[in-house]
Amino acid sequence: MEFVEYADAEMMMIDLADKLASELRAAIAADGRASLAVPGGTTPGPVFDTLSAISLDWDKVHVMLTDERWVPETSERSNTGLLKRRLFTGHAAAAHYLPLYAEAERPEEKLDDLEQSLAPHLPLSVVLLGMGADMHTASIFPGADRLEDALRGDGVLYPMRAPGAPEPRITLSAKVLNDAMRRHIVIIGAEKRAALEKAQGLDPEEAPVAAILKGATVHWAEG
Ligand SMILES: O=C1O[C@H](COP(=O)(O)O)[C@@H](O)[C@H](O)[C@H]1O
After folding, report:
1. Domain named Glucosamine/galactosamine-6-phosphate isomerase: which ranges (predicted)?
2. Fewer Cβ within 10 Å of end Cβ, the chain: N or C?
3. Strands 2-6 and 217-221
4. Which amino acid residue places its CA nearest to atom 6 of ligand 1?
């Protein structure tokens, strides 16, 4: 794992967006196309603002979330809603979106269809992940019902229910995240830095982020 510390969060977001853009360009140059997975939550909005304004062949990029909350896009909890507001504007509006949500009461009902839509775009060219202070990443939470499957299974997606998550989730598996060509994690603040340090000494069952740290670049700023 490489740890990059920035002077402030604003600089970090700009540098990170530039890095993601150059990795997408390199993937497009090599393969004629690229796939990108990005997190939801409260952290990545500013990365999306900068990335969306960067010129590249966005029509050759397929974008998916690392995980989704099983709520409609109109919900303020929807990670898709965040992407539509902050990423798919400007140049990035030309990218192709692969949703992890479809209208159904339970993620299990749509799992096969969603996995089939992702399959042609794997392995991922680039993945950006977030991390919670409880050491979850994507929606792979400590104490979750499908934790073992998401950490060790061969599947692409897993439904997930966890004490730390107010609604059902769907998440890319650790295998899909680890198979990505480039893997970045973005975190802000002292609490998350301490959580990351703690996670390095724990098993993934206790600290799921530990399962995807090897080979990843962690981007951190105090605030
Ligand atoms: O619920 C989620 O949490 C994590 C971390 O979110 P943050 O608000 O602490 O940045 C996020 O990476 C994930 O995509 C999201 O669904």
Report:
1. 8-220
2. C
3. parallel
4. 41
